Amino acid sequence: MKIALVQLNFVVGDVRGNSEKILAGLGRAASAGASLAIFSELAVVGYPPRDLLLKPEFVRANVKAVQQIAESCRGIACLVGFVEENKESLGRSLRNAVAYCAEGRVQQVCHKSLLPTYDVFDEERYFEPGPPVSLINHEGVSLGVSICEDLWNDEQLIGRRLYHEDPVGRLATAGADLIINVSASPFGHEKHDFRIRLFGSQARRHRRPIIFVNQVGGNDELVFDGASAVFNERGQVVAQGGAFQEDMLLVDLAAPDSWRLDPYPVDIAHIHDALVLGTRDYVHKCGFRKVVLGLSGGVDSAVTAAIATEALGPEAVTGVAMPSRYSSTHSLTDAEDLARNLGIDYKVIPISPIHDTFEEYLKPNFADCPPDITEENIQARIRGVLLMALSNKFGWLLLTTGNKSELAVGYCTLYGDMCGGLAVIGDVPKTMVYRLARHINERAGREMVPESTITKPPSAELRPDQTDQDSLPPYEVLDRILEQYITEEKSAGEIIAAGFEAETVHKVIRLVDLSEYKRKQAALCLKVTSRAFGVGRRMPIAARFRYE
Amino acid sequence: MKIALVQLNFVVGDVRGNSEKILAGLGRAASAGASLAIFSELAVVGYPPRDLLLKPEFVRANVKAVQQIAESCRGIACLVGFVEENKESLGRSLRNAVAYCAEGRVQQVCHKSLLPTYDVFDEERYFEPGPPVSLINHEGVSLGVSICEDLWNDEQLIGRRLYHEDPVGRLATAGADLIINVSASPFGHEKHDFRIRLFGSQARRHRRPIIFVNQVGGNDELVFDGASAVFNERGQVVAQGGAFQEDMLLVDLAAPDSWRLDPYPVDIAHIHDALVLGTRDYVHKCGFRKVVLGLSGGVDSAVTAAIATEALGPEAVTGVAMPSRYSSTHSLTDAEDLARNLGIDYKVIPISPIHDTFEEYLKPNFADCPPDITEENIQARIRGVLLMALSNKFGWLLLTTGNKSELAVGYCTLYGDMCGGLAVIGDVPKTMVYRLARHINERAGREMVPESTITKPPSAELRPDQTDQDSLPPYEVLDRILEQYITEEKSAGEIIAAGFEAETVHKVIRLVDLSEYKRKQAALCLKVTSRAFGVGRRMPIAARFRYE
Q1: How wide is the angle at C-alpha B543 spanned by C-alphas B542 and B547, nearest 5°?
Q2: Quick check: is A205 in a domain?
Q3: What is the pLDDT of residues B404-457, one digit of tens each?
Q4: Which one in A357, B269, B335, B399 has a CA-CA gap of 20 to 30 Å to B278?
Q5: Same structural domain for residues B157 and B277?
Q6: What is the set of active-site residues of A?
Q7: Chain B closest CA to A32's CA: distance in Å?
Q8: CATH no. for residue A440?
Q9: Does the CB of B8 have a partner CB in chain A at under 8 Å?
Q10: pLDDT class for B154, splitting at 50, 70, 90?
Q11: pLDDT one-digit tens code per residue, A421-434
Q12: Do B374 and A354 touch (CB under 8 A)?
């Protein structure tokens, strides 16, 4: 028996387009001789559909699409994720479901039992957990179908188990020959390694092979990495599809030697690939072809520009330098070098005359107040207005270039450098931005990000001779404090006890807490760490919570 | 037996401050001769605490606070909402709990069973549902304690019941003499009426009196309206505390004739009161004393200014007129009249010279492109920069003045008129804004919002002779389409079938869908309708979902 693991890149909500993709995939699987094609979780609607699920019209369209897909299942069967209406009169009105389609109709439907409702996930908002497990008899092989989180309840590997049920254990006990896990599992730094261990552990425990089929592609802030895989009953990965790309992995159960095992990119390379895919998909799925961004000569805008260029091609990227009275010469030359290295369009618009006019008309209102952060912000906001003007005039999506460290401590200007639809590196800490810059140059085999951009001291250049370290601790220190405070949810006391200077820790935490209002209005940040700003981190703003 | 219903205004996260409030309330209740004081849901932490709940330090502080409150319970008992750690090894790590404190210690803890996870609520993200109900014996009276949603599962009144359990039914069956419902139930238009019917229905069904204690105050976008109440076993409201204010309602069970029954403001008055409270609390809880806003001479900024003045006092509000080359004379006079009527500070900063400078420096980049929306947006963004400069320089919170109708169809400029920390009327449809304007004048007994502001045709004045109705249907039509599409989740076909012009419906829906990216970065909108933009409406952006 041949099984095709079909990992596709879906557009959220686009039931028609997604169905066409699924039908095309089904055709390819049939041509390759597969008797079963497996698609990812909620394939018909794309994951995550979010509040589109509250539209009855949307749910009906997806049910109809599954019926049409089923009608095409002749000579081949498929497992396809969709949203099912809950026919019971009690409980939430939908279920996260997988249809087993064969012989022209939906033969059986399986439901997700464990509904993640943490981090970026909101499944209890929509779905009723599935009724107990049923097996699917596919040509004499008993398939146990689980959906994503159903398998993420491993006693040994999950710190605290959130669920009282163990659907995969039940499938095994019920006599499944093969466990199938249909997923939409988002990418995260080092998450692939964990996934391999988790699936391996489950396969070993239940002494069953597991087939994992994942979604691929960027949907808003989430990037799905694909890398669908097969694990044998000893828990080894024995087949793996491509990462960060659409793929069909064909496994002939009778001929394990023929299976393909694609490598998964390691460390900084997978961050890079995730950002490239996430950027490309966000831009294209929003209906844009081109982007614009400000080039300061610094490493953040350089890395953002390089990723955009990789994602969209140099002809789709315009970089704009907007020197102020405080810009150094090297800023302009670094920006220009970068644009030349990348082969992107490059513009220069000086902001000093506009800045002067603002100051003139604000002066009567500012009276004798000394210059402060206000004047710095005005410069950043003039740049925002200019970039948005280009965006509006030419239909280019504006990319914002801030990194996670500065977004964390509010070292950024709302309606200024925070303008833009997508924060490409908004979940990348500054220290990792430098590693990305090095990686981009190594990957290209030549200088893309200028060496001087990487080596000079970082500066916002909003006042004379300013550097980031005038007001922030060194980024190596800052990033380690932020990791503990934001990702690990440690208290000030615990971070200080781990060896950091008390004054610095308190200052950083205070800045993080005070900046929630900025992040409330920030652009989407492509999520690459386990705790990103955005939908997976939900903080109150008008709040107070210091205990030391 | 005397029971004190103590409705307080908490700051989210401020365990120390909230505890002090609770202790003071306990003192007042004891002085009044109460044997039991009842506080609202999660009183110690303020509702909703959101992801502060993921901080172990925060949860520990709240547990400690409850113990301290319990120690003060001598000669009086209390029921107080807090977050309890779930001691079981399986399941989510917290519970939404109420402590019964008496004789100096926590005697008993009750848990919330029904965890709302829809609209603005995310309780399954944090809490494990409570173990089965236990009664509390307070001086011989058997108290059945439920927490907010526990009671919102009425067969007759709730369209589709989401839950399989009926905690209030269980409390009644177990022999509770009195049902207590400890709540943090946010305000909504016409929700108070529904609440009265719901509690009445439950009281009748179980033939038990119900005591409802609600939180009061604004926390970010949510406004809690208080109006704590007592229902007799026939389902009648027999006592009610003040709405939109802190209050202590004392009920002597032996003397029902002595109970106070405060009126609840009707219709547009309750929207007004909610916005005033929400604005005051957001500004103060964020640590600001003063606000600034742009005055266009139109009804949106006029109503926003009037609400801010009511909330904070005229000395705390600065209105800024920023006329452009397209501004009419009446805009300036209307703005000036408004400022005079309200007694607020008033500034004029013309934007034409700045606009000219922008155009000059953008010209080489715009080549021969004809003027379009770009030039309109530049004006709105210049105003944003000016207002933010005043905000930064003087520490005034910027209020944004857009209404729900324009936010729905994207008739607003990102980083322009959308600048600001709080959208006071961001959940108020335009037709309701006019009603608010009339109400404000009637309430004051004189003209606050100038009559000409109310009667002239609305215009953004971003190009010559522009009016809103050049590009939008009349607001009476627009608001009815938006209500059906956004709140009722109806399809285009259903709205057209209800009697609206097909072309208009498709155009409006397209505008709503295309504007998700703007709303992603919008200011917090004070929620007054059942479906507000913000945390309770979670839409994908890079999505497609048209089926006609």
Answers
A1: 160
A2: yes
A3: 999 999 999 999 999 999 999 999 999 999 999 999 999 999 999 999 999 998
A4: B335
A5: no
A6: 41, 112, 148
A7: 31
A8: 3.40.50.620
A9: no
A10: confident
A11: 999 999 999 999 99
A12: no
Which of chain B's residues have a Cβ under 8 Å away from the Cβ of A166?
A: none
Q: How do residues A12-36 score in pLDDT, each as one tens digit?
A: 999 999 999 999 999 999 999 999 9
pLDDT, one tens digit per residue, over A467-524 is: 888 889 999 999 999 999 999 999 999 999 999 999 999 999 999 999 999 999 999 9
Partner-chain residue, chosen from B51, B392, B541, that has the shortest CB–CB distance to A373: B392
Q: Judging by beta carbons within 10 Å of its beta carbon (0-12, 13-18, 19+), is residue B340 exposed, middle or buried?
A: exposed
* Secondary structure element (H or E) that encloses residue B361, with its range: helix B352-366
Query: Has residue B479 been placed in a domain?
Result: no
pLDDT at A190: 87
B288 & B230 share domain: no
Q: Does A263 touch chain B (CB under 8 A)?
A: no
- For chain B, what is the domain count? 2
Q: Do A52 and B369 touch (CB under 8 A)?
A: no
Q: Which of B471, B498, B526 is the last residue of a domain?
A: B471
For residue B48, cis peptide bond before it (omega within 30 degrees of 0): yes
Looking at the fold, whether B201 and B285 belong to one and the same domain comes out as no
Average pLDDT of every residue of chain A: 96
Which amino acid would we find at residue B456?
K
- Where in the sequence is the domain holding A423, given as residue range(s)? 271-463
Chain A partners within 8 Å of B488 (Cβ) = none
Q: Is A52 on the interface with B (CB under 8 A)?
A: yes
Q: Are residues B303 and B205 in the same domain?
A: no
Give the end of a domain, one of A199, A231, A255: A255
Same domain, B347 and B408: yes
pLDDT reading at B350 higher than 90: yes
pLDDT value of position B468: 86
User: B222 with B289, same domain?
Assistant: no
| Spatial separation of the C-alpha atoms in residues B266 and A271, rounded to whole Å | 55
Q: Count contacts between A and B (CB, < 8 Å).
A: 268
Chain A residues with beta carbon closer than 8 angstroms to that of B419: 414-415
Same domain, residue pair B248 and B284: no
Q: From A492, which residue of chain B is nearest by alpha-carbon distance?
A: B57
B467 phi and psi, to 5 degrees? -130, 155
Distance from CA of A522 to the nearest CA of B (A): 6
Q: Mark whether B57 and B187 lie in a shared domain.
A: yes
Query: Of A508, A458, A449, A517, nearest to A482 (Cα)?
Result: A508
Of B353, B377, B519, B350, the closest CA to residue A384 belongs to B377
Would residue A437 count as lying in a domain? yes
Average pLDDT taken over every residue of chain B: 96
Q: Judge whether A354 is closer than 8 Å to chain B, CB to CB.
A: yes
Strand positions, DSSP E, B433-493: none
Using the beta-carbon criterion (under 8 Å), do A354 and B361 form an inter-chain contact?
Answer: yes
No. of H helices and E strands in chain B?
Answer: 16, 20
CA distance A2 to chain B (A): 34
In whole angstroms, what is the distance from residue B279 CA to residue A270 CA?
Answer: 45
Average pLDDT over residues A208-221: 98
The rounded distance, in Å, linking the Cα atoms of B158 and B401 is: 35
Q: Does the beta carbon of B57 lie under 8 angstroms from any beta carbon of chain A?
A: yes
**Residue B498 placed within a domain:** no
Instruction: Provide the CATH number for the domain around residue A111.
Output: 3.60.110.10
Strand A77-85 relative to strand A36-38, pairing:
parallel
Q: Report how far residue B213's alpha carbon sits from residue B41's, in angstroms, rounded to the nearest whole number.
A: 8
Residue A238 pLDDT class (50, 70, 90 cuts): very high
Q: Which residue of A has its CA nearest to B542?
A: A286
Using a CB–CB cutoff of 8 Å, tell me whether A261 touches chain B. no
Contact residues, A window 380-419, toward B, CB-based 8 Å cutoff: 381-382, 384-386, 388-390, 392-393, 414-415, 419
Chain B nearest-CA residue for A155 = B90
User: Among the listed ranges A28-32, A255-259, A459-463, B339-343, which one has the minimum average pLDDT value?
Assistant: A459-463
* Interchain contact, A377 vs B392, CB within 8 Å: yes
Residue A547 has pLDDT above 70, yes or no: no
B13 at A interface, C-beta within 8 A: yes
